[in-house]
Amino acid sequence: MLHLLLLVPIVHCDAAESWQFGFQDAATPMMQGIIDLHHDIFVFLVIILIFVLWVLVRALWHFRYKRNPIPGRIVHGTTIEMIWTIFPSITLMFIAIPSFALLYSMDEVLDPAITIKAIGHQWYWTYEYSDYSSDEQSLTFDSYMIPGDDLELGRLRLLEVDNRVVVPAETHLRMIITSADVLHSWAVPSLGVKCDAVPGRLNQTSIFIKREGVYYGQCSEICGTNHAFMPIVVETVSLDAYVSWVSSHT
Hints:
It is a single chain. By secondary structure, this protein is of the alpha+beta class. It folds into two domains: 29-69 and 76-107, Helix Hairpins (Orthogonal Bundle), CATH 1.10.287.90; 114-249, Immunoglobulin-like. It is built from four helices and ten strands; from the N terminus they run H-H-H-E-E-E-E-E-E-E-E-E-E-H. It has helices spanning 2-7, 29-62, 78-107, 239-249, and strands spanning 114-121, 124-129, 139-143, 165-168, 172-179, 184-188, 193-197, 203-208, 213-219, 231-237. The longest helix is centred in the first third of the chain and has 34 residues, at 29-62. The radius of gyration is 25 Å and the shape is elongated. The chain starts with a helix and ends with a helix.
């Protein structure tokens, strides 16, 4: 039985599910860092919640009206004031240090092997593979959502597009993101990417996808009537398959 289980492929959650509680499965080191930071901070949150609840219950029990009909008047307490200043400061330091390290790594841009430009429109995305563009030809295409009536069996409603962004796995990518009209936001949760598309400005982010798969995202900036109908689909393939895809599109 065990050897049969080992043969079953791992199914990753790379798209939103109904009533989902928690993050989608991480496909990049950045997203894994975000999930780990969330879990670390959640530990502090639970400890603080239990402590504050204990203090409230204890205060309500020991200082209720029947036990203390005449309340005491305390206007100053040096010890308790030092405690509630020092301990939150130490807690914030333990939270800040790993978050600063993650923010620094998110802003760091390594030498990319592939550069892709995403341009937001009302209401679709245009992608330009800058490395394969020249005066004679360019690898540029528009990506529209597939209407529900045209979906094939097994495809995801409101998330599938006619042209996916195809990239190789385990390769340093650079996404340059901008907009042609209003504010948009290029966001793919499994990749840990959410970058605003601002008219007249180029924003960039680095991506390193660890495994092959299909990753779904959506515009995360309210951009008009059809804001909910401009999804993002990134398909990660092997290097050989990527080279074949590029050859067939140039």
